Amino acid sequence: MSDDSKKPEEQVFISYFIQSGWMPPAGSGGHRKFIKKLKEKDPKELDPKIKDLKDYIEGDPTVKWMLDEAFRQNGVILRSPDTLNNEYQTGITIPDIPDLETLLNLFNQIMDEIPQYADGDLIGLPFSAVTVGIDPTLEGAAVFRLPEFNEFMKHILNKWNTFLGSPESVSDGKFVKAGWLKPEAKISYDFPIW
Question: Which pLDDT tens digit goes with each residue over 20-38?
Answer without folding.
Answer: 455 666 566 788 888 888 9
